[in-house]
């Protein structure tokens, strides 16, 4: 221990460009360190103690990075909030996380203000990055506080929110380690070391996706702690990504298969116009990648496309380009510190080649779903846990995914939970029953389909479909809105009331390979 970790690196080389904002503004490591230090001093004066939490509703860039760097050296939990959520959804996370400070960027002022009100947080603890009516400017908060290392530094953690089939997001909370922040950060870098990444100078990590995703924070944070420069994208655009890769000599990134599909859709002359020879570790996950898409990316970019499978809860697999070429479609073999277990419905291990529920564990990693002991225990098998995926191991120990027990929709790499949408549509007076599930989408992998049984005396129509979708405005983020609505005379249910969702869903998937 002793050579990695942002705070250590920033003191050793304050002029290192640690981050580049989406507008191109570079940030010296020393300046980011000073901002994080001031923030810790300021929040401690407000009474924040080890184990407390803060939330940030902030876009990709240095503002969110400072919140992360402050929390992770002060022993706090940092929760980056999904900026696509509505006020009530944001309020649930702020309240559930027991945040003692909430930072809102002016871009999300409207829903952030609604969220703060819904959460019940003391208004004096809501801080503005830019112009947020009623919130205290961060500049005022930190004014007069020193840019010196805070006393009693101890490692904090991120607490990301991940939804379950019940629809309400749950915070994945790990015990704090009590380690020195830089030592804890150095341990984090094992994640990138598994892909062969090195802390050598000159490496650049492109942040292509929203920072509220667990993997985006983990990969970006780990790259930063290795001394890599983070280049932030504000929103993803295929050609813009290629331009940034060439301009900044990007060496690594974290992507989802939807990115690949859009890159491959670019005209040949555009794809060939950029110098991508710097790429070394282009890592993807979060959704199944069709074999032809992955093969096309390897043909274009060469052997720098890595894949993994993991969960916010911990543990996972990795597939090198060489692994994948020998086992097309695999998501890899377990990490050195992770184990897999595939079991049948009676929780008995199954032989290679036989699909079953995928359980994982990671050495030394414990977690709980905050405030939901039952949910935490429900996914456990001894010291293994599952998120409900179905898969099998081949004879060489490579994992292949088949399906998902819970009916989670994966659209563009984002998990969308049908129960949450069903619950909102169900309250509409013209709806007798509803089922929501994913149907094939060439670009996004899956899109959201709602099948509705109209209330008695209500005639199905395109106008009714539009009315039902519009009824979600302000209650669910638009990314959760059904893209299409079909109608049935009667919903298929068993006598005990269990919805036979597969009977509804299967016709849409005829002729398609449904990986997840």
Automatic annotation (TrEMBL):
Gene3D superfamilies: 3.30.300.30, N-terminal domain of ligase-like. Keywords: Ligase. Residues 147-176 are annotated as: Disordered. Residues 147-158 have a biased composition (Low complexity). The keyword Ligase applies. Residues 7-364 form the AMP-dependent synthetase/ligase domain. Its EC number is 6.2.1.3. It comes from the Bacteria. InterPro entries: AMP-bd_C, AMP-bd_C_sf, AMP-binding_CS, AMP-dep_synth/lig_dom, ANL_N_sf. It is an enzyme of class 6 (ligase). PROSITE patterns: AMP_BINDING (PS00455). Pfam families: AMP-binding (PF00501), AMP-binding_C (PF13193). GO terms for molecular function: long-chain fatty acid-CoA ligase activity; medium-chain fatty acid-CoA ligase activity. Residues 420-498 form the AMP-binding enzyme C-terminal domain. Belongs to the ATP-dependent AMP-binding enzyme family. This is Long-chain acyl-CoA synthetase.
């Amino acid at each position: 221990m002793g050579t990695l970790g942002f705070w250590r690196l920033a003191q050793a080389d304050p002029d290192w460009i640690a981050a580049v904002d989406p507008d191109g503004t570079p940030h010296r490591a020393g300046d980011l360190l000073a901002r994080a230090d001031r923030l810790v001093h300021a929040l401690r004066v407000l009474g924040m103690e080890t184990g407390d939490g803060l939330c940030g509703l902030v876009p990709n860039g240095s503002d969110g990075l400072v919140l992360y760097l402050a929390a992770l050296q002060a022993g706090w939990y940092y929760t980056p909030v999904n900026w696509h959520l509505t006020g009530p959804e944001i309020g649930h996370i702020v309240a559930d996380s027991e945040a003692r400070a909430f930072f809102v960027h002016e871009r999300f002022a409207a829903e952030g203000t609604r969220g703060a009100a819904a959460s019940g947080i003391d208004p004096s603890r809501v801080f503005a990055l830019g112009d947020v009516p009623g919130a205290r400017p961060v500049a005022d908060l930190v004014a007069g506080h020193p840019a010196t290392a805070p006393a009693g530094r101890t490692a904090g953690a991120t607490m990301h929110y991940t939804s379950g089939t019940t629809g309400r997001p749950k915070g994945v909370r790990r015990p704090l380690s009590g380690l020195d922040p830089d030592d804890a950060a150095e341990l984090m870098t094992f994640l990138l070391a598994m892909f062969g990444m090195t802390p050598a100078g000159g490496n650049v990590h492109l942040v292509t996706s929203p920072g509220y995703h667990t993997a985006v924070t983990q990969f970006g944070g780990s790259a930063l702690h290795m001394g890599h420069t983070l280049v932030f994208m504000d929103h993803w655009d295929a050609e813009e990504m290629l331009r940034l890769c060439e301009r900044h000599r990007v060496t690594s990134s974290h992507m989802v298969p939807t990115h690949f599909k859009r890159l491959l859709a670019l005209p040949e002359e555009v794809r060939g116009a950029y110098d991508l020879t710097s790429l070394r570790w282009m890592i993807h996950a979060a959704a199944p990648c069709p074999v032809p898409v992955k093969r096309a990316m390897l043909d274009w970019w060469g052997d720098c496309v890595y894949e993994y499978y993991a969960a916010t809860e911990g543990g996972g697999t990795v597939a090198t380009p060489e692994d994948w070429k020998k086992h097309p479609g695999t998501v890899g073999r377990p990490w050195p510190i992770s184990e897999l277990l595939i079991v049948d419905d009676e929780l008995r291990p199954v032989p290679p080649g036989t699909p079953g529920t995928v359980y994982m564990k990671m050495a030394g990693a414990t977690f709980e779903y905050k405030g939901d002991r039952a949910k935490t225990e429900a996914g456990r098998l001894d010291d293994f846990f599952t998120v409900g995926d179905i898969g099998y191991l081949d004879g060489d120990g490579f994992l292949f995914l088949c399906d998902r027990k819970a009916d989670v929709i994966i659209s563009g790499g984002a998990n969308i939970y049908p129960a949450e949408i069903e619950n909102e549509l169900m309250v509409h007076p013209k709806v007798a029953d509803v089922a929501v599930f994913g149907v094939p989408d060439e670009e996004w992998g899956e899109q959201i389909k709602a099948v509705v049984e109209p209330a008695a005396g209500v005639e199905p129509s395109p106008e009714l479909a539009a009315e039902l979708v519009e009824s979600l405005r302000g209650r669910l983020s638009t990314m959760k809105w059904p893209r299409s609505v079909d109608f049935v005379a009667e919903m298929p249910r068993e006598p005990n009331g269990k919805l036979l969702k597969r009977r509804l869903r299967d016709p849409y998937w005829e002729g398609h390979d449904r990986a997840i």
